[in-house]
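Priority: medium. Attachment 1 of 2:
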């Protein structure tokens, strides 16, 4: 067991940021820790990395208690905070040498070279950090989080502000690292979660509202519900579409295209065709959509 959280609460004054939260992360898992802004994600990560204490409850990382054995926890954890705190006046290699020194690393030069290659910093390694783009600063942040070869990697919004190419590169790096380490990451990019994570934990208002594999959460949250996108050749109305059996709602997307939400296990596409025939309409396109993780997230965190 890499991470075990039991009944953790954190209170700031009168605000309860975390409310009796419990979960476990197994060795070798990549887990997405999701939630809207202010849900308690960063607070939980700061507790697990020993930056702040919990108000109540317990948490362990590889068996070490975050409150009682914080130095042992820090030896086993690599952490990239949401606001990547770097020394902008230092050169890339100089900074990594400084971080390696804090961890009392042996063969520090070979380890720095390994991190620079792993994170794709070869071209930028002789520059000052302040001269780097956002994407390369994130790479430096990942390099410092990995340099001491931690067993657990905790990443708070690691791809914020990256362009699509940079995002894909960092995503691939996380997948690569996740083959050997336990990774816990927070993000608002649902495609990233679907591509990278083995499991997701969703928090809202300081409490866990979902904790399972992505596919299972999508399935359980969308039982008895389906979404159909249809385009007709002529105009129709929302009220007319709602007369179709089991249709809960209809939303006009553009022109004569509609998204229909139905509450039924039965495929209603046949009923839509019958509706079209009855009303003198021709169906130009008809598509049954899979419920996206983003839709499930919105439903659970309203």
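Attachment 2 of 2:
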């Amino acid at each position: 067991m890499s991470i075990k959280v039991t009944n953790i609460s954190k209170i700031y004054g009168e605000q309860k940021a975390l409310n009796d939260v419990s979960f476990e992360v197994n060795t070798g898992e990549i887990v997405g820790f999701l939630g809207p802004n202010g849900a308690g994600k960063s607070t939980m990560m700061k507790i697990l990395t020993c930056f702040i204490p919990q108000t109540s409850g317990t948490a362990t990382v590889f068996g070490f208690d975050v409150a009682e054995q914080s130095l042992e926890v820090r030896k086993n954890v690599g952490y990239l905070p949401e606001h990547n705190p770097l020394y902008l006046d230092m050169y890339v290699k100089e900074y990594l040498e400084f971080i390696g020194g804090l961890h009392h690393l042996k063969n520090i030069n070979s380890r720095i070279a390994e991190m620079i290659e792993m994170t794709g910093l070869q071209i930028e390694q002789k520059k000052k950090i302040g001269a780097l783009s956002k994407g390369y600063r994130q790479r430096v942040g990942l390099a410092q989080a990995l340099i001491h070869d931690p067993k657990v990697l905790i990443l708070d919004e690691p791809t914020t502000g990256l362009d699509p190419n940079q995002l894909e590169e960092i995503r691939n790096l996380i997948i690569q690292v996740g083959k050997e380490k336990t990774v816990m990451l927070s993000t608002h990019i649902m495609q990233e979660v679907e591509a990278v994570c083995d499991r997701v934990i969703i928090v809202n208002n300081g409490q866990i509202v979902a904790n399972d594999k992505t596919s299972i959460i999508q399935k359980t949250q969308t039982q008895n519900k389906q979404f159909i996108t249809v385009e007709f050749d002529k105009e129709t109305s929302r009220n007319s579409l709602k007369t179709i059996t089991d249709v809960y709602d209809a939303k006009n997307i553009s022109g004569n295209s509609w998204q229909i939400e139905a509450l039924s296990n039965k495929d209603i596409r046949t009923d839509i065709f019958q509706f079209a025939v009855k009303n003198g309409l021709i169906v130009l396109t008809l598509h049954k959509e899979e419920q996206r993780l983003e839709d499930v997230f919105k439903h659970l965190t309203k």
